[in-house]
Amino acid sequence: MSELHPSAISINTINPNVKLMEYAVRGPLVIRAAEIEEELKHGVRKPFDEVIRANTGDCQAMGQAPITYIRQVLSLALRPELLEVVNCPSDIKERVRTLLNGCNGGSLGSYTGSLGIEFIRRYVQQFLGERDDVPSDYRDIILTTGATQGIKSILQLLNCPVEEETNWGLNINELKRAIDEAKEVCIPRAIVIINPGNPTGQILTRANMEEIIKFAYEENLVILADEVYQNNVYEDRIKFNSFKKVLVEMGEPYKNMALASFMSCSKGYTGECGLRGGLVEIFNFPADVKTMFYKSLSAQVCPNTVSQAAIFCLVNPPREGEPSYELFMEEKTKVLKSLKERAQLVHEVFNSFEGFSCTTIQGAMYAFPQFKLPPKVIELANERGMPPDQFYAFELLENTGVCIVPGSGFGQKPGTYHFRTTILPKIDKLKVMLEKIKSFHTDFIAKYR
Amino acid sequence: MSELHPSAISINTINPNVKLMEYAVRGPLVIRAAEIEEELKHGVRKPFDEVIRANTGDCQAMGQAPITYIRQVLSLALRPELLEVVNCPSDIKERVRTLLNGCNGGSLGSYTGSLGIEFIRRYVQQFLGERDDVPSDYRDIILTTGATQGIKSILQLLNCPVEEETNWGLNINELKRAIDEAKEVCIPRAIVIINPGNPTGQILTRANMEEIIKFAYEENLVILADEVYQNNVYEDRIKFNSFKKVLVEMGEPYKNMALASFMSCSKGYTGECGLRGGLVEIFNFPADVKTMFYKSLSAQVCPNTVSQAAIFCLVNPPREGEPSYELFMEEKTKVLKSLKERAQLVHEVFNSFEGFSCTTIQGAMYAFPQFKLPPKVIELANERGMPPDQFYAFELLENTGVCIVPGSGFGQKPGTYHFRTTILPKIDKLKVMLEKIKSFHTDFIAKYR
After folding, report:
1. Is B207 on the interface with A (CB under 8 A)?
2. Where exactly are the transmembrane stretches of this chain (chains A, B) (predicted)?
3. In principle, which of A102, A328, A406, A449 could form an S-S bond with A390, CB 3.0–4.6 Å?
4. Closest chain B residue to the Cα of A104, Cα to Cα
């Protein structure tokens, strides 16, 4: 008789942390969204004819065109034998030669150092130095397979239980409350700040950044600055400041604080999520800790060469006077201008809904509106053992095909309800999506009032 | 006065496991090799003029040419606007269209599902089914950023302390000794077997595989089959058998055992190490464990699309009659034939050295010769606090520029000494390298006899 081997692997013997973990952005709602797409394909009738995936910041899936410069470099770097034959701008060919010259055996098919290709790290040094007007050191810069892998590596190094930190708001009283709560279960080692903010879309003021830095100093926390949206800034009067820049400019004793900053080619005007290009700059990490960190990275072998090449393009764009400059600027400006328009539209429309309030979307690529829910919904959700905004999100998905992430997946003040939606659908589809949410919301509230 | 912030991050607060970990293939020898390369660049005089990196199986860094088919598909998939314009074989264009059709928004720049693109997983299903003549299910196949990430994910799921398992030999008595030793410190959950073998180059006989399977059954171990070298087989009379195939063909009760098998585009005839394409097939994992496993993968976002596209090419090569078939077969055959010649050469030459013995290199891309060391070397190494074969490896590197991995990095019988070298340098350089090792070894033994 066939039976599974009794104890080689079972739900009781696997890693208990795997059982506990939750990731709302790719959780049960997204699984259900995929099922609904399958159902639609097989002719199941729904009150809508497509799923709108507004749950992840997946730019190109939503129709954003890739930047030609990046694709030209990557494509040709994979086929260097075409360098002499194809007709393509000289600066592209120069970039490809530089890139391959830095690869072992002149090929993207070779392993690289565990920290990434050295000459690309030197370009990153220059890029960050120019951005912040503060010196960088390529020896403190590592390339990663997406910013996610960089963040995971740092968290692993710090031995962090991340659950506490990710919920933190940016009001100093709220930070104090959160750290006191954290201290009951662990020794807090780090504070993670996402700026421009995900899911909230805010860009921190310099004064607020200084407060956070002082707080981190007093509490002996390493600052982990997720700055992947640094190119997504939609207000002309606002300039992105990196935490490193602010901390250095604050002088003693803050300029000696330990910090790690994360950047990516998935967001901004590039939107190359699938290529998984990321980088980490560490700052003021003690030498012995760096040695251990770099050793731990070696066990991950090396980041994908194509993702490293994408970072190379990001930090080494066409310069004025180069043949690709004009097209590059045109494409970059077009993407950022369109995102800005959509940020404004989403903000306005959400604020016109009954019971909705949505703060200005200053940056990043999300709106995080707050909305009121009738007591009946809260009761019903409790009965089903799910947060009320998750109940809302499932109903929204089943009725309209719009997939968003409930605020409870990120953390929110008790008794408040939010969801995160990207602003990425193309303008026409975005309008349709907002109309669908409005109509659903009106019906939903009427039904449960 | 400037001083580092005292306790935000220090060697005493970081993850102790990071301090403990060792990875010989990318350890201190490799760091020293990189330093020597820098020294050579800056004109430091050495008894050699280049470092030969025989420490990793880095095919293209050693001059192996990429397979044109793969590069054509990847390159064009990154520039789909060229599909209508460029002159390239129709089967390449068809592959690119199929690939992009499976990507969100038709772009490699979009995120994919956490388990990889579904239609590629279906191609893997077909590929594995044909290879083993045993059915596969794409729902049990995940795409990963290199086989390394797949292995790490499975080890994390199983909550494995891997240190014990990796040392295991394949003699059943040795396995029993190792598991008894492991039981003193943990509950062993899995056995990792690399076949064809790294570093040893052996291909397990079917009888040996059956013994191992029976052993794993008795000990309730999940079998983790690292089968990334399955295309690197150099003896005509030997056929690669996957563990899944053997286990299924053994019938009850073995065919119900839990297994995970790993495959990659870094080895074999493709040698695309830098692209980090990997896949895992799990087999007989309980449904609830699979749910947890897939959930844990979602926190890694998704594998790089280019690495997934490389796996797509690997499992969907040009078929007979297609325009790319002839060139593909010519390139594939050339790579494998040349590796076979080098495997034979390295084996013969090592066995001609005094005090060396090297088993037949049946598969994979390494030789793992055993050699004798005089007592004086062992004494000296002990004084310096390093294993004798590491001392030997450092001396070899400093004197000849040849970088290999000492056997102590993999585990070996106490009192025996080995090193691992790849067979990847091109034939002329390989001969030079072997000559250098021979001459060094003769001098070294004479010096310490």
Report:
1. no
2. none
3. A406
4. B61
pLDDT band at residue B6 under the 50/70/90 scheme: low
Q: How many CA atoms lie within 13 A of B443 on its CB side?
A: 11
For chain A, give every domain's residue range. 16-64+329-448, 111-315
Residue B164: is its pLDDT beyond 60?
no
Which of A188-192, A269-273, B13-17 comes out lowest in average pLDDT?
B13-17
pLDDT of residue B168: 38
Under DSSP, is residue B402 helix (H, G, I), strand (E, B) or coil? strand
The superfamily (CATH) of domain A16-64+329-448 is: Aspartate Aminotransferase, domain 1 (3.90.1150.10)
DSSP label at B285?
-
The reply to whether ipTM tops 0.90 is no
The pLDDT of residue B364 is above 80? yes
- Partners of residue A140 in chain B, C-beta under 8 Å: none
Residue of A nearest to B252 (CA): A2
Please indicate whether, in this complex, the C-beta atoms of B276 and A16 are within 8 angstroms of each other. no
CATH class of B111-315: alpha beta
| Residues A280-289: tens digit of each pLDDT | 999 999 988 9
Q: Which of residues 384-423 of A touch B (CB under 8 A)?
A: none
Residue B151 touches partner A, C-beta closer than 8 Å: no
Partner residue opposite B66 with nearest CB, options A53, A107, A114:
A107
Min distance B370 CA to chain A CA atoms (Å): 26
Class of domain B16-64+330-448: alpha beta
Choice among A29-38, A139-148, A357-366, B17-26 with the minimum mean pLDDT: B17-26
Chain B neighbors of A103, CB-CB under 8 A: 274
Q: B83 Cβ partners below 8 Å, 6+ apart?
A: B76, B93, B96, B97
CA distances from A391 to A131, A198, A387, A399, A408 (A): 43, 22, 6, 12, 11
pLDDT in tens, A9-36: 788 878 887 777 776 666 778 888 889 9
DSSP 8-class letter at B66 = P
- Residue A161's pLDDT is what? 52
Residue A117's CB is within 10 A of a number of other CB atoms, namely 24
CB-CB contact of B426 with B62 (8 Å): yes
Token pair 């989403």: residue: A346
CB contact under 8 A, B11 and A156: no
